[in-house]
Design goal:
With 700 residues, the chain is α+β, with helices and mostly antiparallel strands. The protein contains 27 helices and 9 strands. The protein is globular. The chain binds zinc ion. The site of zinc ion (ZN) has 4 residues, from helix 17.
């Protein structure tokens, strides 16, 4: 350590400890620690490049070691940004973010490393490696190829130009959507127009009015207005579901579906350019289309396989979607609407029908789901399924908040396998929304010792009030199961190379398999009822409420499925056979599919693609289908347990052992299709998903 680095000795981000020192890390530690790590990593990388010899020990091992200091410093910083955010921390993170990104780009695009990896791939060393090691190398080669490492001269130059331009266009696309969304609002002043609104929408829209009109002396209130409705989803969705003023619903829908399609924020040309550049990029890398490039790093083998899945689901869901529509039309007519249903009526009548069919309140359900009892039920389920024991670890562990719990996971003979942090409750002032699983430390060899994985599970559940435990909504329960499913893949991995252990290296259309698989158990009556106890009476969830929860899951699943497929297929058509230089506008691809699939023709002024941020602003391009693909996998995996008999303890634990040994133990260390086949004995089928969604021609 140099003289001017003395303060580094006390920096908690640079200590060699079992767990990151979450209780000691402060924003002021970030910049010095990260710069220190980066400069050492740069020196080490130069050494690796200089001595690069085509063997695992000379190249891959030092590359793996390069990551370790980042795990103890950069990892915890990212984690704290999510759970203990502050302005100081954000600033510190931002000031070093670019340096970390450039280093990782330089690492992944190093021509020397790429060439040496290729020598390993094509030489004698290859046969000496185990399949997980081979997979590490394949994934590195693939990522480098997709980043253009193999290109030279003019082609390389053009490739970099395209990458730059694409990144600017995608940012511009997203900004246009944001700006166009912000620019519109509808102010409502007449009390008769808020009839039927939920309390929360009244409050939110009065608050929004006050924020926009700070100079008004008289403040808006939830009961007296004025109410300001915007195109942000928390305002837009409840308005469309509850507003009884059809004219206003039409106005709002029009604004929403034509966002960013004209004037200063017109995305139409940007879409055309993005599609053309993506196509050119794919050609430079040797693919026929951008869709082929995207699928090269996914589980789905090719465009045909994705299309086949979509077609099967469409054929099954279409009659249900049409029937859902007829039900809504009937209710509307019976309730006195004389005009046929239009797009701005669907959310409204769908809600009315839902209320009519499944009358229960979230609050009623909550009384049965006490967090400690739900957790107990979850742990006993995974013990039955996977023969593992989960118990609290009461050692003094460095934590970032007193509500955080720390657990260890043991094999049935008591051998430690992993551990995890559970941060269960919402803390809006410092914790981001949603729920997520993240790796704290991956499984790998370190100083000749096997380091076991440590996982973060973060939820935003309802905190306990008074001396009552946290009472969970059903959504919070399924979310906990979902994240725990990701956690299981992180914790039960048997792979010792961090790049492919746990969820690392899993193709992203397969990564939701274990998580959605776990959600299925929330609809298995004995499992669900077993973890309920009414907070006052101690009674388990009554049958009647269970059946309602189960039926509500599949409410309008036909229509929902068709909509998802419409988005997914539009994405695939645009990135596969569509010609961005031709005369047909991209919007026509969407409209043609919408005419074929939806029960009513697309709205005449519709410009849906102009705000389709998933595929033009984010990372879902030629990947939107992944949502459905992963659902097919998880439902099909669960059906293996159904076939064994959900109430047959022996059969369940045998099937569970197979699931653990394949999907959970292998994770990213083999191609997901191979792993799936090892578990299921065949390729995935859509049968189970259709049956679980009530789309298989039988009534449940
Ligand atoms: Zn997930």
């Amino acid at each position: 350590m140099r003289k001017d680095d003395t303060s580094l000795q006390d920096n908690p981000l640079l200590q060699k400890t079992d767990l990151p020192l979450f209780d000691q890390i402060k924003p002021e530690h970030v910049i010095p620690a990260v710069r220190h790590i980066l400069s050492r990593a740069e020196t080490n990388l130069q050494k690796i490049e200089k001595n690069a010899a085509p063997t695992w020990n000379d190249l891959l091992k030092p590359l793996e070691e390069l990551e370790v200091p980042f795990e103890y410093a950069w990892g915890p910083i990212g984690h704290l940004l999510g759970v203990k955010n502050s302005e100081e921390l954000r600033e510190a993170h931002e000031s070093v973010l670019n340096e970390v990104v450039s280093f990782s780009l330089r690492l992944n695009q190093s021509p020397v490393i790429y060439k040496t990896l290729e020598v390993i791939r094509n030489g004698d060393e290859w046969t000496k490696l185990d399949p997980a090691q081979q997979r590490v190398i394949e994934l590195k080669l693939r990522a480098a190829r997709h980043a253009g490492v193999a290109l030279e001269g003019q082609e390389k130059e053009r490739f970099n130009e395209i990458a730059n331009e694409l990144s600017q266009l995608q940012t511009k696309f997203s900004n246009n959507v944001l700006d166009a969304t912000k620019q519109f609002s509808l102010t409502i002043t007449k009390p008769e127009d808020i009839k039927g609104w939920p309390e929360n929408l009244k409050q939110l829209s009065a608050q929004s009015y006050n924020q926009e009109n700070p100079e008004d002396e008289k403040k808006a209130s939830g009961d007296a207005g004025p109410w300001r409705i915007t195109l942000d989803l928390p305002s837009f969705i409840p308005f469309m579901q509850h507003s009884q003023n059809r004219q206003q619903r039409h106005e709002l829908y029009h604004a929403y579906i034509t966002r960013a399609s004209e004037g200063d924020w017109d995305n139409r040309n940007i879409i055309q350019k993005i599609l053309a550049l993506r196509k050119e990029k794919a050609h430079l890398l040797g693919f026929n289309s951008f869709a082929e490039l995207s699928l090269d790093s996914k589980m789905a083998p090719d465009v045909q396989a994705v299309d086949r899945m979509s077609q099967e689901l469409i054929t099954a869901a279409r009659p249900y979607s049409d029937a859902d529509f007829k039900d809504m039309q009937k209710l509307a007519t019976d309730s006195g609407q004389t005009d046929p249903l239009e797009h701005w009526d669907l959310a409204y009548w769908s809600e009315r029908l839902r209320e009519k069919r499944f009358e229960y309140t979230e609050n009623e359900i909550r009384q049965y789901f006490q967090l400690p009892k739900v957790i107990e039920g979850l742990f006993s389920l995974v013990q039955r399924l996977f023969s593992i024991i989960v118990e609290p670890d009461n050692q003094a562990i460095p934590k970032w908040h007193p509500d955080v719990q720390y657990y260890k996971v043991l094999d049935k003979d008591g051998k430690p396998l992993a551990s995890f942090f559970l941060d269960p409750y919402s803390r809006p002032h410092e914790k981001r929304g949603g729920a997520w699983m993240d790796e704290c430390l991956g499984r790998r060899w370190l100083d000749n010792k096997l380091r076991l994985p440590v996982i973060h599970l973060c939820c935003n559940g309802t905190p306990p009030v008074g001396d009552q435990p946290s009472l969970m909504s059903f959504g919070e329960v399924t979310t906990l199961f979902h994240e725990f499913g990701h956690g299981l893949q992180g914790m039960l991995t048997q792979i010792d190379y961090a790049a492919v252990s746990g969820i690392n290296g899993v193709e992203w259309d397969a990564v939701e398999l274990p998580s959605q698989f776990m959600e299925n158990w929330c609809y298995h009556q004995p499992t669900l009822t077993g973890m309920t106890a009414h907070v006052e009476t101690g009674e388990p969830l009554p049958d009647e409420l269970f059946y309602k929860i189960k039926a509500a899951k599949n409410y309008q699943s036909g229509y929902a499925t068709i909509r998802q497929l419409l988005f997914g297929m539009s994405d695939m058509r645009l990135h596969n056979e569509f010609n961005p230089d031709g005369t047909e506008p991209p919007s026509e691809v969407y409209r043609a599919l919408a005419r074929k699939l939806l029960p009513i023709p697309p709205y005449e002024s519709e410009q849906f693609l102009c705000a389709f941020g998933h595929i033009f602003g984010g990372g879902y391009s030629a990947g939107y289908y992944s949502y459905k693909w992963a659902e097919v996998l998880s439902a099909d995996a669960f059906s293996a347990f159904e076939e064994a008999g959900l109430d047959n303890a022996v059969a369940i634990s045998e099937t569970g052992a197979r699931f653990r040994d394949t999907i959970l133990a292998t994770g990213g260390a083999a191609h997901p299709m191979q792993v799936f086949k090892r578990f299921r004995g065949r390729e995935p089928s859509t049968e189970a998903l259709l049956r679980h969604s009530g789309l298989n021609g039988k009534t449940a």
